[in-house]
Amino acid sequence: MAENLPSGLALVLCLFATAVFYIGCPNQQWFAKRYLTFLPSLLISLVLSLLAWWLLLNVMSGLSGVFTVLSLEMLFLGLIPFMPKYEKPLANTSKAKSSLVRGDSYANHQTQWLLKTIGMFLIGFPFAVFTSSLIGWMAPDSVPSDIRSQYIMWLIVPLWLTPLSLIFFSRRPLSVFIAFVTLTCVAFGLLQIIKFGG
């Protein structure tokens, strides 16, 4: 029973980290007004995620903890916006009005879902490959190379889907694109330094 406590606490911390991040996003639909701006919510979310990872170190390796935290938060990020929508079943779904709260800018807002999806799909893949390679390189030497390569391979999926999800939480998708292009270039540069620098 005592072995399950860190895992359970880590799960709760991941849920809270995702909820706090969502509350700070400009397109959140839980509250009529935002109680947190994006930067404080991001910092709080990162601290909670690090605490969850630290708790998971009691039951798994550091690399497995990173994969678990990323996968949990990716899952919660997909589910958490809908949590308050299902408090009670609707009596008649065909006549039910939408409870979605729209901002003032929604009237002249163009969604551009297709451009956002394709753009972040293309940018997210090299970001995921280079970042997972960096994380795999930081693994201890005691980890066998076949396990390390499997870890790198499986880590690509949450790292690829995370930016693909995040693009829809921003009112300024261009800044998200620029941030991930910059992070991709930094990760690629670090890999080149590792490769040629020894």
From TrEMBL:
Domain of life: Bacteria
Membrane-spanning segments: 6-23, 35-56, 62-82, 118-139, 151-169, 176-194
Keyword annotations: Membrane, Transmembrane, Transmembrane helix
Keyword Membrane: yes
Protein name in UniProt: Uncharacterized protein
Protein's organism: Paraglaciecola mesophila
